[in-house]
Design a protein that fits this description.
Number of strands: 10
Helix content: 25-40%
Order of helices and strands: EHHHEEEEEEEEEH
Mean pLDDT: 81
Largest sheet: 6 strands, antiparallel
Radius of gyration: 19 Å
Distance between the termini: 30 Å
Length: about 170
């Protein structure tokens, strides 16, 4: 699991899981995600259903990527209150990021996920679920190529110099 953010109800979830016999090796909220998923798998749920149930139990701000031995072809993802962008290119490669910069030069299409969106990706295919509606990846924006990005950086740099003194510089 890759987890960015805070699971606000992790103490409560951890206690429930410990009462069911799950052992924890750390004090992190990320470990709760893994054990919840494991619990739903052990109950006989298919991997996507187990991930869906896991995400619905979580409260807080998070972006999650999960790969499971039970379905090695898929990357499960979920997002709430923190940025998560999915990109893909003409080679059917799929990228996940919290900002545009790493996608430039790699992805040709991107989608910015809404809060409480989850789904899975596998080579050439991305399935999104939001408000119980299942959809396929639809390009929201074309990503800039490296040359356009460099030009955009120059424009921002020039504008930054123009407003220097009006606004504090942000590192």
């Amino acid at each position: 699991v890759i987890h960015y953010g805070i699971i606000e109800n992790y103490q409560e979830l951890k206690k429930e899981l410990q009462e069911k016999g799950y052992s924890f090796l750390s004090q992190t909220d990320s470990e709760v995600i893994v054990h919840l998923f494991e619990m739903y798998i052990n109950e006989g749920n298919e991997p996507f259903s187990a991930f869906e149930k896991t995400v619905k139990k979580l409260q807080g701000a998070f972006a999650i990527l999960l790969i499971s031995k039970t379905d090695k072809e898929k990357i499960f993802f979920a997002k709430n209150l923190v940025p998560l962008i999915i990109g893909k290119n003409d080679k059917d490669e799929i990228f996940f990021s919290s900002s545009d910069a790493p996608l430039i030069g790699n992805a040709t299409e991107v989608v910015y996920l809404h809060d409480r969106t989850y789904g899975y990706a596998k080579k050439g295919k991305i399935i999104l679920v939001r408000n119980h509606e299942i959809g396929r990846f639809q390009t929201i924006e074309k990503i800039l190529d490296k040359n356009q990005y460099m030009h955009l950086q120059q424009v921002i740099s020039l504008r930054n110099e123009t407003v220097h003194g009006l606004l504090p510089r942000i590192p």
